[in-house]
């Protein structure tokens, strides 16, 4: 039964006592029962507050609110509230490592000497914490300390313990969102309706809103919680299978997409504004101004929610780079301009969850993809995830190899059946990922021969952007391509390249070079460079050891970098050989989950 009208306001002590009991059990059922008892007594507003506070916050995660209370400030506030010396409190903290316990012990000591304070209501604690949070850690330190001290002054020891733990971000009750959902379901709906509660949470990512709605209007109220731009949807996740035959057996004819190795983002465009959220509902628009800019253009005029993977791209060669190249951008405020310029990020879109007033989450995947392709204007920095629809094993294997050699980490197979809806918040069999053990870590450098070059873009316009590199196969006397090398050159190296290579320039491909790639310039095999790579992978593009490890595939060096040395002491014949590459690949083959 949901809320029918109410009694006196709930005291914060009820919540603090429930937290004490929750802290002494590891059982999910018991935790849910303790919360359920609170919800049964709560007004809709109180149900909302209980929910956020139990999640250690005063708002849903995607609002990005933080209390910003450092240990030092908490100690000062405890000192002010109890009139105990801060040095002693600091000693206590060093001893037990828990500021909540320091606060609670200090309050017990203070109790013996001070007069009884006014009891704290849940609403008062919540509102004070909200004030601290919306100040975003800014505002006058003295005022913030005073606000905390006032709360603590009126707290009992157990209340002080949980207020302080919440403020310093160490509530750590171990209550997962699913346990709160259990408790809400037990308090307000029937057992059979629990999944509807979870579904509402999955589309709005806001458990406080779900709690408020249930307490106010019961299950029928959940209909008002809808997909809407600006409110992140909990993402759909993949199951995994060990091979393409298993995937085709499971899904039949399905869509296969490159599995890009980057950061998943959910982009919300509404009223001309664009926001980016991660899988964890963290807003990262500020860290990716380039993606915000390119997506704003791509989605212009539409209210939409689309998903994709952000991947850094080498601006000189257009190659995908490992995500670590830009991972430092997250949470970073300074030097962002330089980072954006040096490592631009592209987004590869793969889903559309909302478009101009229509919720697409319950629409089958092929229609979502169609909506995506017909709405988004691909262009600078925005592309669609590479995709094919097939039930042919050989075609699927080739697509997998293409993904790996283009910088992907495998494929994601997606059901195209009528039931292939977007299952928010769920890891299920409608999407299956496949990352195979066809990658082998490189621990040594290799010496490769320059056989071709590609025209540069961006800063390298008018010069060479990347070099086509080969190994030598002594049994045939031929040079077999193994990678496109564009990274690791400093300005001095770049300036040297024409001098080094132009003397070996040819009008067309040297007869001894086996290449499926069409380079913009060709060289006689002469210049040897030391190259370091992240991994060796099978590749449908390169000719090194073609057909030896798998029919139709060669070997490639993934994420290659010039190691700094032109091996002028080596001739092309002395370069790393095909056999050495095969051996390295086999010896270092690693199992990828
Ligand atoms: P992993 O570490 O393998 O990426 P995960 O637990 O982060 O796993 P999963 O659901 O298992 O996530 O794998 C899907 C992830 O792959 C997505 O969260 C997304 O970041 C990424 N991805 C890359 N390309 C695609 C694509 N075309 N479709 C869906 N997800 C993709």
Write up what this structure looks like.
The strands form 4 sheets. Strands 13, 14, 15, 16, 17, 18, 19 and 22 form an 8-stranded mixed sheet that branches. Strands 3, 4, 5, 6, 7 and 8 form a 6-stranded mixed sheet that branches. A 5-stranded mixed sheet has the order 1-11-10-2-9. Helix 1 packs antiparallel against helix 2 and helix 1 (12-23) crosses helix 7 (122-134). The mean pLDDT is 89. The chain has 593 residues and is an alpha+beta fold. The protein folds into 4 domains: 12-56 and 174-224, no CATH class; 71-167, DNA ligase, ATP-dependent, N-terminal domain (DNA ligase i, domain 1), CATH 1.10.3260.10; 237-435, D-amino Acid Aminotransferase, Chain A, domain 1; 446-592, OB fold (Dihydrolipoamide Acetyltransferase, E2P). A hairpin with an 8-residue loop joins strand 13 (446-455) and strand 14. Helix content is 37%, strand content 21%. The two termini are 46 Å apart. It binds adenosine-5'-triphosphate (ATP).
């Amino acid at each position: 039964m949901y809320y029918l009208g109410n009694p006196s306001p709930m005291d914060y002590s009820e919540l603090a006592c429930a937290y004490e009991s929750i802290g002494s059990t590891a059982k999910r059922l018991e935790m849910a029962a303790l919360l359920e008892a609170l919800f049964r007594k709560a007004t809709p507003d109180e149900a909302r507050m209980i929910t956020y506070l139990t999640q250690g916050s005063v708002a849903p995660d995607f609002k990005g609110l933080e209390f910003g209370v450092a240990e030092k400030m908490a100690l000062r506030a405890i000192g002010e509230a109890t009139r105990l010396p801060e040095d002693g409190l600091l000693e206590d903290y060093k001893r037990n490592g828990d500021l909540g316990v320091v606060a609670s012990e200090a309050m017990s000591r203070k109790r013996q000497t001070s007069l009884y304070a006014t009891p704290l209501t849940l609403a008062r604690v919540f509102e004070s914490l909200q004030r601290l949070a919306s100040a975003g850690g800014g505002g006058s330190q003295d005022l913030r300390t005073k606000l905390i001290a006032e709360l603590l002054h009126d707290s009992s020891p157990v209340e002080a313990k949980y207020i302080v733990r919440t403020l310093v971000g160490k509530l750590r009750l171990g209550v997962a969102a699913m346990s709160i959902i259990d408790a809400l379901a037990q308090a307000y709906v029937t057992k059979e309706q629990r999944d509807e509660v979870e579904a509402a949470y999955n589309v709005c990512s806001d458990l406080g809103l779900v709690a408020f709605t249930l307490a106010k209007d019961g299950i029928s109220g959940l209909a008002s919680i809808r997909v809407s731009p600006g409110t992140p949807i909990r993402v759909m996740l993949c199951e995994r299978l060990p091979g393409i035959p298993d995937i085709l057996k499971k899904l039949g004819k399905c869509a296969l997409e490159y599995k890009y190795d980057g950061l998943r983002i959910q982009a919300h465009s509404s009223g001309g504004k664009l926001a980016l959220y991660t899988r964890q509902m963290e807003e990262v628009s500020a860290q990716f101004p380039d993606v915000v800019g390119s997506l704003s253009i791509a989605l212009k005029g539409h209210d939409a929610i689309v998903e994709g993977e952000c991947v850094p791209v080498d601006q000189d060669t257009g190659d995908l780079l490992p995500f670590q190249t830009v991972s430092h951008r997250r949470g970073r405020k300074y030097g962002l301009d330089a980072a954006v310029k040096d490592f631009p990020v592209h987004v590869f879109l793969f889903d559309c969850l909302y478009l101009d007033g229509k919720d697409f989450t319950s629409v089958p995947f092929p229609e979502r993809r169609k909506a995506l392709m017909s709405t988004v204007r691909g262009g600078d920095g925005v592309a669609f995830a590479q995709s094919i629809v097939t039930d042919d094993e050989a075609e699927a294997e080739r697509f997998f190899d293409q993904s790996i050699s283009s910088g992907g980490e495998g494929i994601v197979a997606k059901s195209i059946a009528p039931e292939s809806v977007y299952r928010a918040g769920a890891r299920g069999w409608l999407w299956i990922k496949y990352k195979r053990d066809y990658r082998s870590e490189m621990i040594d450098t290799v010496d490769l021969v320059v056989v071709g070059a590609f025209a540069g873009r961006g800063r390298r316009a008018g010069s060479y952007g990347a070099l086509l590199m080969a190994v030598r196969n002594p049994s045939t006397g031929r040079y077999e391509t193994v990678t496109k090398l564009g990274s690791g050159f400093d300005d001095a190296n770049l300036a040297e390249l024409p001098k080094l290579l132009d003397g070996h320039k040819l009008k067309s491909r040297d007869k001894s070079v086996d290449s499926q790639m069409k380079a913009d310039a060709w060289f006689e095999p002469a210049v040897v460079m030391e190259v370091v790579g992240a991994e060796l992978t099978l590749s449908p593009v390169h000719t090194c050891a073609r057909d030896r490890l798998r029919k139709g595939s060669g070997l490639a060096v993934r994420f290659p970098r010039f190691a700094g040395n032109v091996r002028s002491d080596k001739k092309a014949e002395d370069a790393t050989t095909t056999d050495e590459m095969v051996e390295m690949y086999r010896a270092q083959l690693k199992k990828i989950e």
